């Protein structure tokens, strides 16, 4: 039998009426499954707060994927060559796919895509603040790939081991694609950095603008992170914000050197004792302002998202009509 986890056995026992299990007993089974690094699956019992936390996190992640298409889509028509255009189109399309996996993962928790999109459009759910910054030059496409997708990978690789099965499995595929995104960004910046003086300056300017917002992607410092401790206990999160941020900095420093670009932080230096880099203070007032809606592009991003949703209504209607027409019940001539 495929459903062999303690979670499934407990759920089946209750469904069969062969066991009288109260919530306390289910909680104990859940806790044991998490402690044993077993995956929690959609039909397993889970605490309401665990479910709510996952929905919030997966929704925010899904929203970030689809809003994140905008800053880069801004450059598709102006990509400098057919090769670059094809790569960028594939990348932006991947992000739509990531959104799809993630909305589907949220659906397994009983929350539909319509509801989540409605919350995004009405501002009740957020997306990553990084996408509220503008893409001013072609080099920004490279900086986003190298730094923003790079930070996303650092954040998401540990999520492949997240305790909730559908989210963890979605992350495996997402991370493979993000790794391609990161490399295309690096390669783009390398070409610019080795190009003319103006191209090099353009690449440096993009890195100067995207570096600090990328570090903010890991979220507030550990002592101010509201949900971190509980998420770590549930094994949704495996590492703290600060830990992941430091890991990212350590990865980027040698890559920046190979690129021939500098990171805009005079305090950045290797700390022999800690075996990690020290870096300067992050301007959290900027992070909070962007989060509150006062970033350079907040208004533009959400307006465009709402418009795309409205303009896509006919596609959704056509897809629903097509699905109804081809459903087995319709094909067999029965009423649906
Ligand atoms: Fe993505
Ligand atoms: Fe990506």
Mean pLDDT rating: 92
User: Which small compounds were modeled alongside the protein?
Assistant: fe (ii) ion
Gyration radius, rounded = 22 Å
Shape descriptor reads globular
Strand-pairing-aware structural class: mainly alpha
Low-confidence stretches: none
The count of helical stretches stands at: 15
**In what order do the strands lie side by side in the largest sheet?**
1-2
Descriptors:
two-stranded antiparallel sheet; oxidoreductase; Ferritin-like; globular; 336 residues; binds fe (ii) ion; 1,2-phenylacetyl-CoA epoxidase subunit A; single chain; 15 helices; phenylacetyl-CoA 1,2-epoxidase activity; mainly alpha
Provide structural commentary.
By secondary structure, this protein is mostly helical. 65% of the residues lie in helices and 2% in strands. The chain has a two-stranded antiparallel sheet with strand order 1-2. A hairpin with a 4-residue loop joins strand 1 and strand 2. The protein is globular, with a radius of gyration of 22 Å.
In summary, what is this structure?
With 336 residues, this protein is mostly helical. It has 15 helices and 2 strands. It has helices at residues 6-16, 23-35, 48-67, 69-73, 82-107, 113-121, 139-156, 165-193, 197-216, 228-233, 241-259, 284-294, 298-311, 313-325, 328-331, and strands spanning 269-271, 276-278.
């Amino acid at each position: 039998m495929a459903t062999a986890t303690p979670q499934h056995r407990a759920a089946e026992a209750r469904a069969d009426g062969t066991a009288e299990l109260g919530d306390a007993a289910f909680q104990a089974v859940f806790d044991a499954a998490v402690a044993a690094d077993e995956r929690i699956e959609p039909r397993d019992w889970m605490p309401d707060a665990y479910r709510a936390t996952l929905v919030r996190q997966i929704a925010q992640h899904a929203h970030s994927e689809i809003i994140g298409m905008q800053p880069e889509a801004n450059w598709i028509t102006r990509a400098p060559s057919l090769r670059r255009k094809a790569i960028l189109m594939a990348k932006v399309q991947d992000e739509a796919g990531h959104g799809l996996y993630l909305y589907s993962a949220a659906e397994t928790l009983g929350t539909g895509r319509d509801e989540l999109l409605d919350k995004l459009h009405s501002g009740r759910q957020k997306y990553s603040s990084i996408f509220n910054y503008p893409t001013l030059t072609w080099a920004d496409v490279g900086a986003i790939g190298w730094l923003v997708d790079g930070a996303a990978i650092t954040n998401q690789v540990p999520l492949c081991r997240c305790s909730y099965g559908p989210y963890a499995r979605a992350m495996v595929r997402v991370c493979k694609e993000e790794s391609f995104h990161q490399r295309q960004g690096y390669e783009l910046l390398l070409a610019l950095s080795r190009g003319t003086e103006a191209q090099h300056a353009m690449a440096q300017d993009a890195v100067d603008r995207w570096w600090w917002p990328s570090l903010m992607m890991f979220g507030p410092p550990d002592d101010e992170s509201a949900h971190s401790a509980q998420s770590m206990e549930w094994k949704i999160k495996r590492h703290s914000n600060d830990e992941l941020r430091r890991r990212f900095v350590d990865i980027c420093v040698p890559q920046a050197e190979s690129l021939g670009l500098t990171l805009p932080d005079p305090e950045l230096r290797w700390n022999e004792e800690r075996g990690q880099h020290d870096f300067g203070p992050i301007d959290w007032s900027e992070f909070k302002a962007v989060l509150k809606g006062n970033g350079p592009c907040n208004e533009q991003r959400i307006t465009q998202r709402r418009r795309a949703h409205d303009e896509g209504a006919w596609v959704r209607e056509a897809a629903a009509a097509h699905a109804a027409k081809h459903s087995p019940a319709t094909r067999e001539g029965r009423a649906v």
